[in-house]
């Protein structure tokens, strides 16, 4: 071994040491040696400059050789126990497995190629070892990270032959090397080898019989006809029922309305209507032959998209595939229907599938958001009509997707001006009634929650919708039309407070600066609300009036780490708009220093230096 190979060997050992594996070493160019020399172990730091300048100097051969042997020895000692553990599990050596468990070996450790000891015991029919591992705390729901020989070799950057040999020697030689195993659990492997005792032991220790692998298959699909399949059918049904009861109890303790109100300000009526409809669906009080369809109407930035997102997060427990969002402004032309369901045979993109059908196939009960549906071409609406009516969709390849369990939400700005003006009128009426109650010293309290009347819906909104969509059958497929109204004064104050808290968190995380403000600041910023832009107008007002000043002060060197910034409001005579002032207090100092961007860069600048 020449010096260059020894040197490279050392750095590869250091690089792979924490991963418990040493790969085959090949001779690398001098630039690799120079690049990796920076992480040299501290005891040998004085040698770093010398070796960097002379990486091929044979005077360092003994030192490099001894260090490389030391690293290999340490790595071998760490790997030796784990390798013994996997071998003992594979061959069913109960005494060795028990000894190593007592020696604090991690029973959930993964092989470098992705499987766990419990999977290894299950696939090799080692019932005794399975019991031992489960009692020691092995997790039966861990999923396989090994994909197949080709893809695993590509991801791990190992030769496919080496992966194949390792898989057969250290896992099982009875499996198809070309099949995909990503997402398998120990229960999948136990069902595959048709061992009833192992299957039962895994289920009794908490294995989920409904947990699907990467291609969407539960363990029962790999079981043969017989006791194992019958047992898994029974346990799957029991598991589903238990999950339903658990979800029901959770919904009782924490209703959907409360969950949605954590993320959405105001819109009491919209939240109540959506939650009630979804509750009917969850408890089996809806038509199973048709999906739920909503139409969200209201101004921009008022919570329509956010409500759809939070509904998907609730139903699918934050799984990304559970929320599908399509911007319908991208489907304004007739030929763009192919983008939605896929190109027909003989056309470019036929094999790719459509943007909607491809995602729906992956999650047939997803929450699907058609954003700004009023901008879509009429032919696209024809496709949606079939989808809403039958709960299924045929893609360009002729495959039908059943999606009766999906929830479809359309958003639109149609009639947004009329809804906004109507909402403002109702807000003013409530304010007038509240003032009268105060004048009369009444104990009654009026809520900010307002209801949209049937007269307004039928006389104002529906004619606008009919005039645009030009088809009653499309509107007739919508279960609920949800109206999003302008924010009340209290809701605006809450929006401002949330936005300021968000900037306070950013200031602390990014710059170690504490941001404070007076209550009057929230009130002044709420005056910047624009009914046509909703919450976005509040966001922009905070950035324009407050954050811009803080950023300028930071750039001028007025703000240091650990300082406190206070934002206040100054009302000047003959001015409709208030002025926002900043005061800074250095860490460990009691006195505040005012920052004035208009008259001078900084008053009393010496106090902050």
Key phrases:
609 residues, alpha/beta, Serine Threonine Protein Phosphatase 5, Tetratricopeptide repeat, Rossmann fold, 4 domains, four-stranded mixed β-sheet, ANK repeat, nucleotide-binding, Clp_ATPase_C, ClpA_ClpB
Strand fraction: 5-15%
Provide the structure class: alpha/beta
Determine the number of helices (DSSP H or I, runs of at least 4 residues).
24
The first-to-last residue Cα distance is 60 Å
Q: Give a count of the beta strands, DSSP E runs of length 2 or more.
A: 11
The Rg value, from CA coordinates, equals 33 Å
Please tell me the overall pLDDT: 79
**What is the domain total for the residues?**
4
Largest sheet: 5 strands, parallel
> What is the topology, as strand order, of the major beta sheet?
2-3-6-1-7
Q: State the low-pLDDT regions, or none.
A: 1-50, 69-78, 598-609
The CATH class of the largest domain is identified as Alpha Beta
CATH topology of the largest domain: Rossmann fold
Q: What would you say the CATH architecture of the largest domain is?
A: 3-Layer(aba) Sandwich
CATH H-level homologous superfamily name of the largest domain: P-loop containing nucleotide triphosphate hydrolases
Shape annotation: globular
- The percentage helix is 40-55%
